[in-house]
Amino acid sequence: MRITRLALTLAFLAPLGLSAQEDVKRELADLKEKVAALEARAKDQEKVLTKVETKVAQDNIAWGGDLRTRFDSLQLHYKPYQQFLGFVQNPAPGASNPYPFMPVTQQMGAQDWSNSVEWSTRLRLRMTMNISEHAKIMGRLTMFKVHGGADTPVFNGSPNTVQNGFNDAKVPGNDVLRVERASFVYDWPALGVLSIGRQNTSDGPPLEVREGTERQATPQALAVNALVDGIGWKFHLDKLGFPEHSLLGICYGVGFESGFGGGGSVKNTYVPVGFNFTNATAANPAGAVLQVNPVASLKDSTVLGAMLDVPLLFEGLGTVHSANIYVGYNRFGNMTDIPFGNLTQFPVPAMPGMGGMPSIQYVTATNNLGDMDQFTATWKHKIGDTFTYFGSFGYIKSHPNGKTSQYGAYWDMPAQMGGPGYQLTGFGGLLGDAHQSRTASAYYLGMRWDPRANLGLGLEFNHGSPRWFTYDPAVGEPTDKLGTRGDVLEAYVSWEFVKNVILKVGYLDYTYSHAFSGWHIAPAPMAGGWESAYDLDRNPMLQYASPATMKNTYLSLEVRF
Question: What is the pTM of this model?
Answer without folding.
Answer: 0.84
